[in-house]
Amino acid sequence: MSEGKPLKPLDDLDVRLRKAQAEQKPPIGDGINSPDGSMSGFGMAMRIGVELIAALIVGVGIGLLLDRWLETAPLFLLVFFFLGAGAGIMNVYRAASGLGLAAGYARPPENINGNGDKTNERT
Amino acid sequence: MANPLQQFEVKTLIPIHMGGVDASFTNASMFMMFAVAGVATFLMLSMRGRALVPTRWQSMAELSYEFIAGMVRDNVGSEGRKYFPFIFSLFMFILFANLIGLLPYSFTFTSHIIVTFAMAITVFLGVTVIGIVRHKLHFLSFFLPAGVPKIMAPILVPIEIVSYLSRPVSLSIRLFANMMAGHTMMKVFAGFVIPLGILGGWAPLAVDVALTGFEFLVAFLQAYVFTILTCLYLNDAIHLH
Fold first, then answer.
1. Which range marks the domain in which residue A110 is found?
2. For chain A, how many structural domains are there in total?
């Protein structure tokens, strides 16, 4: 590093430090659509398939447990089956359109190109 | 033909019973210890030199560190840095579990849903607690998105709650299903090699060779997916929209 050319003077150390710090703090990505780390096609396909099933499993599980607890045999199973199916579709929609994982249809506010774009808000 | 599911059997090695709880040391526990020991040995031995110009081993260790540090930075931001040790441990543990499981005669404990579910529920509970601590009651806005008509709330809130509760399930099913399906498929094809004889046995053998390569990809990919989803859940809890 220090061989050959003279050492860099310390007065531009401040600039270099700030540059290094800025590199450490990039804007927060929205995860799935992050420029570098987009998942492979296979990973995405697996993710979407599992997402659909998992919500259904949770819905049916909650329904069965509530039914067993309150002894209202098929009532909660039916209700939560459809809620689970709805949640599964919603998970898939969110995963596929890159809305992030939190509730709602708004794009993450950190996402610059998605900000203020209301076309996708309700589909 | 050997049972292709035999490889997933949990065998008790040292029986331990404490107060009616079966806490025996099984082959799953043994391979978990191997994974932890493997990670520790890999990182400690490869970083022993601490050279400015890294050796091959040191650059492997640095590469894995940089990979996860970059993932946390990109997906959670600078507030996520304090969760880096947990996320890095999680990634290395799953990665080593998957890779050790590829060795012949070994046991893949990530192919058991209880193992992956335990990890996923830990992540889920941790993330939920972080969200509640940081946002207090505002955290409940998770379940009622802004701008939704009030009349939709009775339908939408249960759906959102089910969707939120499905996170640990989908996280664990993904890892477990990938590992189990891959290993079963390999065993099924391997079971055809000898019965088909010297003429036909080559075809399933070739498939198995290809599957082994594919399994290496899946081992990395699933460790990556588990970790990146942990980062995304963490990001959701820290930056609530």
1. 39-123
2. 1
